[in-house]
Amino acid sequence: MNDFPSDFLWGAATSAYQVEGNNTNADWWHWELKNPRITASGNACLHYQKYKEDFDIAKQLNHNCHRFSIEWSRVNPQPEKFSDQQIQHYYDCVSYLRTLNIEPIITLHHFTNPLWFSQQGGWNCSDSVRYYLLYVEKILQALAEKVRYWVTINEPMVYVYYAFIAGRWPPQQRSVIKANKVLSNLIKAHIKAYEFIHNYYRQKKLPSPLVSIAHNMVAFVPCNNNLRNKFMSAFRHYMFNLKILNELVGRKKLDFLGLNYYTRHLIDVQSWSIKEWLNNQCAQGHNTLEKNSMGWEIYPQGLLNILLSLKRYNLPIIILENGICTLDDRQRWRYIYNHLKQVSEAIKRAVPVKGYLYWSLIDNFEWDYGFEPRFGLCAVDYSSYQRTIRESAYAYARICKTGLLIDEAG
């Protein structure tokens, strides 16, 4: 008996800004220019030119689905003006995936915005949802007949936190008031896009689409079992992991749960001060788990715990991102294998997991960390842009082909 269903979705993911290169109309591009200490994305991985090569690699690795994003700033370079040439490019991407019999999973917003949109206030702007829906409509007109899976917004909680709470990402505006408004507009944008996509498919008599967000969830674990840490862990789990799902599921605006999972936070708060409710983690040296090259703890058990917590929603679950940045490819394989063990266990416990996508297909530009983190199933030589498939990718490919959880290192 296989460890995974025969119709399981296997694949990997990328995002446009992180791999395409030269997205000169994006707010991130101009933020990089203003911040010389930030690594510039530049050519990134030249995926815009090399997408066929990359999709051929996905096919070679037995992937039957691929998640990628459309760069809003490419197709909508000025307010209410769209580039037919750039829309054609994404049509060609989807069409090529279809010729390879790979299911496209399209992300419509993956952190970056058109510069003009940002200059008008971005997601704080009262017209933000309207502008986003004009973009969604244009993309649907081009791609609906070839796409069934849509991800409207990637990691809204992460975007809000890094841009408006931590202030690390553009527009670097630390404001709880702005953070709440941006999150509210992102949720509205998803709801409106969900309704629009479903209405469009009905009008065109197309098979019903499957629409969701990609929601990053963290395993919040108390450092010790004192009342304060247990309470704060549960509070953060609710606020960061469950609150947005409760709203969208309650309003019937998700067709599946799109889950991104990477790590745990070990919670150790020293007082009931409001300043400690959202940020503090253990500073006592108890974070002793193996880590990736960015310092994130590797905690596969957290994925099982989160999947079990999602069972209550009675919706299919697709793991849209799970991966590790490391220079040690043996560590990458252990990460993939140990997380897939947890997915298999969740399926045995009747959690409706329908797919797993590794982050990412190729090494990429990792936002304010630059090019140093290496997440890819394929290595990218940034001097020649040559792709080299890693051994962990071949080991993962055998699981994709057989549905059997084979430990290649065992």
Can I get a quick summary?
Helices cover 42% and strands 15% of the residues. It has 410 residues and is of the alpha/beta class. The longest helix is centred in the middle third of the chain and has 28 residues, at 176-203.
Radius of gyration: 20 Å
CATH topology, which one?
Answer: TIM Barrel
Mean pLDDT: 95
- The portion of residues assigned to helices is 40-55%
User: Number of folding domains?
Assistant: 1
Order of helices and strands: EHHHEHHEHHEHHEHEHEHEEEH
Task: Describe the model.
By secondary structure, the protein is an alpha/beta fold. The chain has a single domain (9-219, 313-402), classed as TIM Barrel, CATH 3.20.20.80. Helix content is 42%, strand content 15%. It has 13 helices and ten strands. The protein has helices at 16-19, 27-34, 47-60, 72-75, 84-99, 115-119, 128-143, 156-165, 176-203, 227-250, 300-310, 329-348, 391-402; strands at 9-13, 65-69, 103-107, 149-154, 210-222, 257-267, 317-321, 353-359, 378-380, 387-389. The chain has an eight-stranded parallel β-barrel with strand order 1-2-3-4-5-6-7-8, surrounded by six helices. A two-stranded antiparallel sheet has the order 9-10. β9 (378-380) and β10 (387-389) form a beta hairpin. α8 runs antiparallel to α9. The two termini are 20 Å apart. The relative contact order is 0.14. The model has no long low-confidence stretch (mean pLDDT 95).
